[in-house]
Amino acid sequence: xxxxxxxxxxxxxxxxxxxxxKDLGVEVRSLAARNLRLVSEGGQRHFQVDLATGVLLxxxxxxxxxxxxxxxxxxxxxxxVMENPLQLHRVEVDxxxxxxxxxxxxxxxxxxEITEVANPGTxxxxxxxxxxxxxxxxxxxxxxxxxxxxxLSINVRGDGVKMPxxxxxxxxxxxKVPVHHLILTALDGGNPVKSGTAKVTIHVLDANDNPPxxxxxxxxxxxxxxxxxxxxxxxxxxxxxxxxxxGDVEYSFKTSNNAPGKFTKLFxxxxxxxxxxxKAPLDYEESSAYEIAIRARDKGSPAMEGHCxxxxxxxxxxxNSPEIVLTSVSSPVQEDAAPGTVIALIxxxxxxxxxxxxxxxxxxxxxxxxLVSSFKEHFSLVTSGPLDREKASGYNITVRAVDSGSPQxxxxxxxxxRIAxxxxxxxNFSSPFDTAHIQENSLPGTSVFSxxxxxxxxxxxxxxxxxxxxxxxxxxxxxxxxxxxxxNGTIYTVRTLDYEQDKVFQVxxxxxxxxxPALSSTAVVHVFVLDExxxxxNIVYPSVPKxxxxxxxxxxxxxxxxxxxxxVAVDADSGHNAWLSYQLQESAEALPFQVERRSGEIRVAxxxxxxxxxxxxxxxVRDNGTPSLSASVVIIISPEENSVQDFSKSxxxxxxxxxxxxxxxxLIISLVCISLVSCVMFGLVAARC
Length: 689
Description:
- The protein is mainly β.
- The chain has six domains: 94 residues, Cadherins (Immunoglobulin-like, Sandwich), CATH 2.60.40.60; 97 residues, Immunoglobulin-like, CATH 2.60.40; 103 residues, Immunoglobulin-like; 91 residues, Cadherins (Immunoglobulin-like, Sandwich); 103 residues, Immunoglobulin-like (Sandwich); 103 residues, Cadherins (Immunoglobulin-like), CATH 2.60.40.
- It has six helices and 49 strands.
- It has a four-stranded mixed beta sheet with strand order 1-7-6-3.
- The longest helix is centred in the C-terminal third of the chain and has 31 residues.
- The protein is rod-shaped, with a radius of gyration of 80 Å.
- It is found in: Cell membrane.
- Potential calcium-dependent cell-adhesion protein. May be involved in the establishment and maintenance of specific neuronal connections in the brain.
């Protein structure tokens, strides 16, 4: 007979497959006696019979996939032999599939490639997962991890195998997502469901669909103007999302054929690195900024290019000194210019900018000028105080321009300002009073004195002319005595002077400049006439006609010392010239009389013998001048009848004469005048000292 059993795989040994004794209808007690034994057809022992119970048991764990592979059915064939009587039974055991295997992909990771320009709908086949289980426990379906660009499509082949495919649903952009990572899951139909996964890596192949892009497209760089040649200005940050030749970028300046940019002479560009460096000195004053256009081209086919715009702004360095421009200078300037008078217009400029170009002007504080800002970068130099040409005929004015840079730079310019004279100063004598002396009887035209005046002005304002003023101080106009040279101030006599008439003159001299209006000042020159011995002594007593003698009677017995008479004489001269001395002219006979040298008194010198004959005396009066002048008088002395005679009577009383009275008055007046003149001279000398 043939028995048929089924057993699930993966059961433990000893699992009861079927009741052979019952199914064969054999007593369980007889199984041992009949020597029941199993014979496997494949030579492998998977089962055993429990003779005590007559049950077919598993002898080892069964693995359907190992026994039958992918066969839809899996059966094990056994032969059951019993003796007494000999019987052969065929036993077929179906090994039932259990979902004990999960689906498995041939490779744990699948790598796919797709071009970034592939159209939606493009399919990418995938390898089929394997599941040793059969039937419903085999592969049931596939699942794909969520993706914006890809979806899963499952096709069924003619043999019923399900073929998974990835379908492109949305256009790709390699530059955004160059690689897509997905998870493909294979699910079987068992219970519980088992699954297997594989990593799917999809590489997006590049296409030259992206131009080079500058980041940022417009950039700005600040650079000091004095950087050395070769200084790195910037390195362009250009990206091309493509790869390979499509992403290799070459740089070049973008210029116009008609007007190539000036920056190409100042900057260099590395075609491969994008580094921009200086290749010539930069000057902020020539240009404060440069606009540079750069072309970035890739090596794709067709090539694509991008454009960068770089603005290089130079930072001003204080490398220029201020420049001073004298627009106008009013030289000379009148010394009476009012404060605030514009002297010069000054312009300044500094090619630098900002604080480096902000200029301050300075002049010395001690100068009578100041700077006033007219408007930007223009100044006026004006007077700030009174000017005086006589103190300073001109000024060296140094204008210093200093900028506000760091470090500061300065420039200075010096110009000379001449001060024009104004007739603001009157001529000034060296002394308001001067003293001159001149000998009387000097010839007309004799130089008396030279006055000197000075005028601190210049030119015609200092051209002086002298004149003598007639101020009525003299009885006769002074101009009749003196004249003055109007150019050099030398005073000359007009006529001969007589000391005995005029002993001193006050000559007022005026000096006047040639300015407009003319200014003048005066000085007084005291001209003292020096006496000459031009007057002989004049015997005023006894007064006798010329050629006559004076008779004087004395007592016949006059004693020695007896005053005979007194000779009185005067001299119109003065000083030594008026010092008189009296003496007797020598005679052949000795005379008993003598004359006092200074007083002129004639006295008896020795005892007289009885006078019989008169004595003739010649008395000479001589002055002390050089040469000396003299006068003489003849006196005849005779005895008188009355021996006692009053001397006053013998003198004939000359004081009662009107002429004698006038002479005395003249002497007094002369002495007073001489005293006054002396006092004035002493006062002038003291004041001058």
